[in-house]
Amino acid sequence: MTKDEIKVIIEKSKFEDLDITYPEPLITIKDKVILTENNFITISGLPKARKTSFMQFFIASCLIDKSFFGIKSNLKSNDKVVLIDTEQSIFDFHKQNKFLKKALESNKLPKKFSAYLFREFEPDVILNSIYTIAQEQKPKIIFIDNLTELCINPNDIAEAKKVIQFLKKVTAQFNCGIVCLLHLAKSNSFTLGNLGSYADRGAQSVLRVTLDKETDTSTLDCSMLRSDAHFEPITIQYDTNQNKYTYAENKATNNEKSIKKAFTMDKFTDEEIKSRLDIVFDMQPEYVYSALVENLKKVFGVGDNAIKQIVIPFILFKKYIKNKDKIYTYYKK
Q: β-pairing, 27-29 with 205-212?
């Protein structure tokens, strides 16, 4: 890159102290801001947790301006929406789009919606295809199911960083939002590899879908929202009598004691701990104790007692963070 090209980038990146209007949210959940232009969000969960089903309600709201379980879009009537699927079979892909038509109560999908199945192609081909679609169609929101298929090795730092920079580039250049689905690792219930860590760190919102096998219910919750306060979890189940998803009772509170009892820091690798602290301290460089507790709760997904009795003592002892005059700062090794 030449010196003149660098100068252009510096000038383009220079902060201008001007009043700007905060963008209208593209997606809200229970009136909480989830996604705005120039941003991406992640929705993660174990296989079969129904994260794709929740994504279908996101898409449905974008297409008919209707709330589904508190999930609401704020798009104009002519705003285009694109779905990129990277892993399903042709049969399952058609099945999902059939589900979408049912949610829309329509026999046909709207013309402003386009869906693409890239299962058979390599990551670079998929990335180039997404860029071309964004460039030519100018969609307001792009849904990607599943982000892990955009790289060969989600643990490779350079490759993971490349994918996240790609998301930032597309949202910035084409003034759109991106919704990414991610798998969780069965071993520790965190997003897979460095790709998952980088995605959670760069996302405007980090959402999780969990399955309660005992009741066959799925719950959508937030691990982190940069632009708003948390929303109450949404729990759904499939009603065979009505042949559709309906609200269900949230069982999270009932299981809270057993979850806390089982919680331990031993199941986290050094990299996993630091990636979550990166998220917390990217938002601000230092915290008082109460604020630190609240933000650690978001990234570790546990309550006050677990954070105060387990997480904070552990990360202090391991020198991940420092406490000076009751101000907590991040010590990067």
A: unpaired
Structure tokens at 326: 């009751």
Q: Return the DSSP state at 3.
A: H
Nearest to 209 by CA among 279, 122, 146, 165: 146
Pairing of strands 32-35, 141-145: unpaired
Provide φ and ψ at 35, rounded to 5°. -145, 135
Q: Which of 181, 278, 194, 254 is nearest to 220 (CA)?
A: 181
Tokens of 13: 């990146």
Give the tokens for residue 33. 């801001």
- Spatial neighbors of 146 by CB under 8 A, at least 6 apart, are 86, 87, 181, 182, 183
**How far is the CA of 156 from the CAs of 121, 159, 278, in angstroms?**
19, 5, 18
pLDDT in tens, 178-219: 999 998 766 555 566 788 888 888 899 999 999 888 889 999
Report the distance separating Cα 196 and Cα 180, nearest Å: 11
pTM: 0.75
Tell me if 59 sits within 8 A of 100, measured CB to CB: yes
pLDDT of residue 65: 86
Please state, in angstroms and rounded to a whole number, the distance separating the CA atoms of residues 55 and 35.
13
Q: Give 48-53's long-range contacts (Cβ < 8 A, gap of 24+).
A: 48/211, 49/209, 49/210, 49/211, 49/218, 50/209, 50/211, 50/218, 50/236, 51/181, 51/209, 52/96, 52/145, 52/181, 53/99, 53/218, 53/236, 53/245
Question: Domains along the chain?
Answer: 24-251 (3.40.50.300), 258-330 (1.10.10)
Most confident range, picked from 12-16, 155-159, 247-251: 155-159
Phi, psi angles (nearest 5°) of residue 27: -140, 135
Q: How large is the average pLDDT for residues 310-315?
A: 91
Contacts of 89 (CB under 8 A, 6+ apart): 119
DSSP string, 157-185: HHHHHHHHHHHHHHHHHTT-EEEEEEEBP
